[in-house]
Amino acid sequence: MIFETLQILKEQLENYFAAINLEEDILLGNISLWESGSVEAKELNGKVVFTLLNIEEESTLKNSPSFKVVNNKTEYRNPPVNVNIFLLVSANCNTYERSLRSISKTIEFFQAKKIFTSSNTVYNRTNVAFDVLAYFKFVLVLYTPRFEELNNIWGTLGGRQLPSVLYKVQLVQIERDKKLASSELITHIGGNVEHIK
């Protein structure tokens, strides 16, 4: 679900850039390769890059029930894992001015649309990864690290800083469709109750 989430966000921002005639390509990639001199580094030139920075489990939702009722049967499953994704959007455009404009328009788009659901989002469903994606809902929150945190982030990513913005994508649900067990649903209690001394 992590790839699908980032791919949907990428497509949504591409559509917005096309609508406002901002001709910048958007790419899912590892921005830390930017100055590595590798083949992958060349692909990052002149692009707006989506990089997965961190994954954090949402601990408040760990105690969800491990069963559900389906067709009058109780199915036991491990509860889904709910995670928050930290998404770094970096503008590695051909000029600094274009990079700043790309970041500004990225913030503008995600300010106008923070909540993405399967009912309010049109995306390319022909992608093979989306064949099991029936329902989703996630929320983007602008995350502002302190200067020293930002320095540590870019230091880890290789040094020089690009114009960028960091988002926390809340509540991406990851669940494998695996039933652990099932049993008949208890619908009534029978028998006789006698006086007990």
Task: Please describe what this structure looks like.
The chain is of the alpha+beta class and 197 residues long. It has one domain (2-60, 82-174). The protein has four helices and nine strands. The strands form two sheets. It has a six-stranded mixed sheet with strand order 1-2-5-8-7-6. Strands 3-4-9 form a three-stranded antiparallel sheet, with no helix packed on it.
Compact overview of the structure:
The chain is of the alpha+beta class.
The proportion of residues forming helix, as a percent range, comes to 25-40%
Count of domain modules: 1
Report the total helices.
4
Main beta sheet: strand number and arrangement? 6 strands, mixed
Secondary structural class: alpha+beta
Task: Return the string of H and E elements.
Answer: HEHEEEEHEEHEE
The total count of strands amounts to 9
State the assembly state of the protein chains: single chain
Ends apart, CA distance between termini: 59 Å
Q: What is the strand content?
A: 25-35%
Unreliable residue runs = none
Mean pLDDT: 84
Rg from Cα: 23 Å
Rough shape? elongated
Q: What spatial order of strands do you see in the largest sheet?
A: 1-2-5-8-7-6
